[in-house]
Amino acid sequence: MSSHLNWMIIRNNSAFIVKKRNIKKPFSKEPNNVTNLNSYRYNGLIHKKAVSVVENPDRKGFTVVYKKAKATNKPSKNIVRRPFKAGARRSLFKVKRLLKANNYRTDLTTATLRRASAILRSQRPIKAKKAKAAAAKSE
Amino acid sequence: MSLSIARPLVSVYSEKSEVVAGSSIALPFVFKAPIRPDLVNDVHVSMSKNSRQPYCVSKEAGHQTSAESWGTGRAVARIPRVRGGGTHRSGQGAFGNMCRGGRMFAPTKPWRRWHRRVNLRQRRAAAAAAVAAAGVPALVQARGHIIEKIPELPLVVSDKVQEITKTKQAVIFLRRIKAWSDVLKVYKSQRLRAGKGKMRNRRRVQRKGPLIIYYKDQGLTRAFRNIPGVDLLKVDKLNLLKLAPGGHVGRFIIWTQSAFERLDALFGSWKTPSKEKKNFNLPQPKMANTDLTRLLKSEEIRKVLRAPNKRVIRSTRKLNPLTNSKAMLRLNPFSAVLRRKAVLDQQRKNNQRALALAEKRGIKLSPKDPAVRAEKIRERRQKLLKLAAAKKTKKPAAKKTAPPPPKKKAAKEAKAKTPAPKK
Fold first, then answer.
1. How many beta carbons lie within 10 A of that of residue A3, not counting itself?
2. Which ranges carry the Large ribosomal subunit protein uL4 C-terminal domain (chain B) (predicted)?
3. Residue B144 has what pLDDT?
4. pLDDT, chain B, mean
5. B217: pLDDT confidence band, cut at 50, 70 and 90?
6. Which of B9, B20, B96, B89 shows the shortest CA–CA distance to B61?
7. Are A59 and A123 in contact (CB under 8 A)?
8. What is the C-alpha separation between A56 and A54, in angstroms, rounded?
9. Counting Cβ atoms within 10 Å, is residue A73 exposed (0-12), middle (13-18) or buried (19+)?
10. Cβ contacts of residue A75 below 8 Å, gap of 6+?
11. Distance from CA of B154 to the nearest CA of A (A)
12. Nearest to B418 by CA among B407, B410, B373, B391
């Protein structure tokens, strides 16, 4: 059924909603949500097209997971995974191109890029500890 | 409205989860019935009251005494007290809900209204809604079922499944069709109930797994019933408590082919009433087209709207011209002139006063002193003006158009000269 109908059913009543104390807007744990927010725009279940970014298991690069619009009722064939292993700038450019060229949920581009950069950032070698160790040694 | 509904073809899967070529069934109309979670919840609440067993306290509880109040004058509360003597119980309060050993407030009675009847129409509409919701992957996932890998939703399997007799085969079937992860989730959720239910024969809890709806039981029930979480249901006897457990729509349902084909006869379409249910037709939806985005962009609606007003009016802060010089300038540009004049006049006054003071006191001011310089500049300027005026007054003999300017200059000169000698 239409995404609006599904949203009205799901918005307050879903296995994926995460509510915490003192936080007004609940989060959402479903797999295809770019921002993990519980909102109509970002929900991964109700729309025909949805995007999400996941870390690669070998901690190098990320994978963009998106839905195929034609296979909404065939869950096994619904999802497409595109891994990006190139360096940071190139990968992000490619992701942006992927979304914009196919006009695929362009309202999610900034969120997707943010998530991808966050993942890449977490994959960078941790420099802080080395600097601290060096400082400790010099003292 | 029924004409505009698209009825996609649902492919049937063999018990080895391969697509059975050539057999695909058009989606029964039930799956397009309006999904009404509110209705389903209400009906579910009422229906689940129907399997309750009555409970109550004994009707003589708290009254098996012949207590009587001692009345006033004995320095005790007036609550009825137990008669007699020779035991702890004598003289204790009785009968009241506040007394130890008394009867409770409003003792529970067995004739409480335990069961609820639900209107037939509502029951049927709720069942239709629950079935419809089970065909929407979003709702099934939101209810918590793991259906990422199943081939299609609604999941229709060939009738061979009805002939499965061994649980082992049943497990293999569920595995092949990728429904096993849902069952695994049931396993992981098995735990002890919180609360007194533990000692009331409701010790263990687990979540619900897939629901298998069949037409003919040829061993199916006995094969699947030992798998935790799996429920079996006959198409002819659809149970809302199983279709929407907890009042929440969207259970993961596996249909057998004959069961699936039976749905059209059971529920009918909007054009044709149901064959099996007397006097029943699928409920009409409130909105035929629920896709809001398409509605809002449609021609019919766009035509009636006015053009969008995209001018952004930002409110600016009002600045007080009396205190803010720029605001004053905006309103009255001449104020700059007035202000400048005021400044210059003030300066002139100061200079004149300084000179006068110096004269009075007989102090000689240095030539670099600002007052002295200003005075000198003034004198020089007045001389120049005089010369210019004199030149111009001589010329009018030749030209007649000259007169007006010199008059003005003469007047100005007079004005300029008069304040100086005064001060």
1. 21
2. 278-351
3. 93
4. 88
5. very high
6. B96
7. yes
8. 6
9. middle
10. B137, B147, B148, B149, B150, B151, B152, B153
11. 8
12. B410
Contact A45 B138 (CB under 8 A): yes
* Closest-CA residue of chain A to B292: A4
Residues in chain A with CB shorter than 8 Å from the CB of B133 are 9
- Residue B124 token pair: 């049927």
Residue type, B147: I
Lowest mean pLDDT among A27-36, B113-122, B398-407: B398-407
Q: With beta carbons under 8 A apart, name residues in chain A contacting B137.
A: 45, 72-73, 75, 78
Q: For residues B355 and B351, what is the distance between their CA atoms, to the nearest angstrom?
A: 6
Cβ separation of A73 and B153 shorter than 8 Å? yes
| Chain A residue nearest residue B246, CA to CA | A13
d(CA B390, CA B178): 114
> Per residue in B12-37, pLDDT tens?
998 887 877 778 899 999 999 999 99
Answer yes or no: is pLDDT of B375 > 70: yes
Residue A55 bridge partners (DSSP): A62
Residues contacting B174, CB < 8 A, separation 6+: B180, B183, B210, B227, B230
Whether residue B312 contacts residue A23, with contact meaning beta carbons closer than 8 Å, is answered with no
Q: How many CB pairs under 8 A join A and B?
A: 71
pTM for the whole structure? 0.75
Residue with tokens 């065909």: B135
Residue A46 contacts B, CB cutoff 8 Å: yes
**Mean pLDDT along residues B265-288:** 91
ipTM entry:
0.86
B143 touches chain A (CB under 8 A): yes
> Percent of chain B scored above 90 by pLDDT?
61
| Residue B407, pLDDT above cutoff 90 | no
Instruction: Select from A45, A46, A75, A81 the least CA-distant residue to A61.
Output: A81
Strands B68-69 and B80-81 come out as antiparallel
What is the per-residue pLDDT across B26-83, written as a single tens digit (0 to 9) for each? Answer: 999 999 999 999 999 999 999 999 999 999 999 998 888 888 888 899 888 888 888 8
Which burial class, exposed, middle or buried, applies to B113 when counting CB atoms under 10 A from its CB (0-12, 13-18, 19+)? exposed
**pLDDT tens, residue by residue, B84-98:** 888 888 888 888 888
Distance from CA of A90 to the nearest CA of B (A): 31
Burial class (CB in 10 A: 0-12, 13-18, 19+), A114: middle
Contacting A residues, span 72-91, partner chain B, CB-CB under 8 Å: 72-79
Is the confidence at residue B417, as pLDDT, over 60?
no
Of the candidates B10, B8, B249, B28, which has an alpha carbon nearest to the alpha carbon of residue B139?
Answer: B249
